[in-house]
Write a structure and sequence with these properties.
It contains 14 helices and 2 strands; from the N terminus they run αααααββααααααααα. It is mainly alpha-helical and 361 residues long.
Length: 361
């Protein structure tokens, strides 16, 4: 919205700043951050008043959670989404298709999570919307986003899977790229959802991954940067830096209240939305494989559940003391703060490895 102010510029005044993506990204960050600080406490008070007993705690979860986390309200992801949407609409270019694709995926998955959270709270049960229904709607949203991304990308890249490190390697998936991208987006959404099990555990790695993907999207969206780095040029993706900056600002505003002991949980409203956003950015910028590196923590969390379930069905035994894997470490005696901070460190290391793929050619 504010990008239109650049039209008032004669090239040498303050209005010219609005032409620059980096300036508008900074504005989006601070707008989302202030939004989080302003509306965080009123939202928490409202959620407490409406939810009563707060988020239902899993009966098969760690015993300590039933006492320490009982009564904590959920749906705090509304705060992140509100900050993210307002800041993005205010600072990003309204004519950029990639911004709209990513924003609508985020809102769509946030809506799925909101309905799921509402069902859990209203029924006072840890069971919400059926997994089959959530996946069906999620795949429909992801399919529309994947098709739109293919249409918006250059003809020579549409339907192609870029392989990191090998600069000239493109795997032609054709229209199979759409189901592949659907799996990337839905997989990312559910992997973040599985990670969201401890105070502050999911939101910081999401912000780290978003920042990394924002830098990548900005780089591939500039012809000079993409030429220098020898990555595939995707016009328009640079504007996603504004979106990721807003996500980080909103995430920090939420983390202020989600820091241990959490005053609010993001719930599926936040985790599904943020995971879907990461997947959409990766698809738009042609860095789907790099997402698996940058978001490696989420991949491990999801794999721990898949391995646990599959092995138990085959043998009747468990690989981990409890899945997702962060609960395994809780059962081993690690303090919650130890798990959270160590996972943050791992997320940062993986993000740096992901960024390194830009230069390793």
């Amino acid at each position: 919205m504010l990008y239109f102010l650049s039209s008032l510029s004669d090239g040498g005044d303050v209005w010219n700043l609005f032409r620059y993506i980096t300036f508008r990204a900074g504005g989006a960050f601070f707008t989302a951050l202030v939004f989080g600080f302003l509306f965080g406490r009123p939202l928490i008070n409202l959620l407490k008043a409406r939810q009563g007993m707060g988020q239902p705690i899993r009966e098969d979860g760690p015993e300590s959670h039933r006492l320490a986390k009982a009564g904590t309200p959920t749906m705090g992801g509304v705060l992140i989404l509100g900050a993210l949407v307002v800041a993005t609409l205010l600072w990003a270019r309204s004519d950029n298709v990639f911004v709209w694709i990513t924003l609508l995926v985020t809102i769509g998955f946030g809506a799925i999570g909101f309905v799921d959270d509402y069902a859990k709270v209203s029924k006072a049960s840890a069971k919400g919307v059926s997994a089959r229904m959530r996946l069906a709607i999620g795949f429909a949203i992801a399919g529309a986003a994947a098709a739109a991304a293919m249409w918006a990308q250059p003809v020579e890249l549409a339907g192609q899977l870029a392989v990191p490190v090998f600069k000239d390697v493109l795997i032609n998936l054709g229209f199979l790229f759409i189901p592949f991208a659907m799996i990337v987006i839905v997989g990312a959404a559910n992997a973040v959802n599985l990670t969201d099990g401890l105070d502050g555990l999911a939101v910081m790695p999401v912000m780290i991954a978003a920042g990394t993907l924002g830098v990548i999207a900005y780089s591939v969206g500039r012809v000079d940067f993409s030429d220098y780095l020898e990555v595939h040029y995707v016009p328009g993706t640079g504007e996603l830096l504004v979106f990721t900056a807003a996500l980080i600002g909103g995430g920090l505003g939420f983390l202020w209240y989600n820091a241990p002991p959490a005053a609010v949980f993001m719930g599926d409203t936040g985790s599904l939305a943020l995971g879907g956003a990461l997947g959409a950015i990766a698809v738009a910028s042609k860095h789907e494989i790099v997402l698996a590196i940058v978001g490696g923590l989420f991949v491990v969390e999801a794999l721990s559940v898949i391995i646990q379930v599959a092995w138990f069905k085959m043998t009747g035994k468990r690989v981990f003391l409890m899945a997702p894997i962060h609960h395994h470490f809780e059962k081993m005696g690690w303090a919650e703060s130890q798990i959270v901070i160590r996972f943050w460190i791992i997320a940062l290391i993986l993000a740096l490895i992901g960024l390194a793929t830009l230069k390793l050619r």
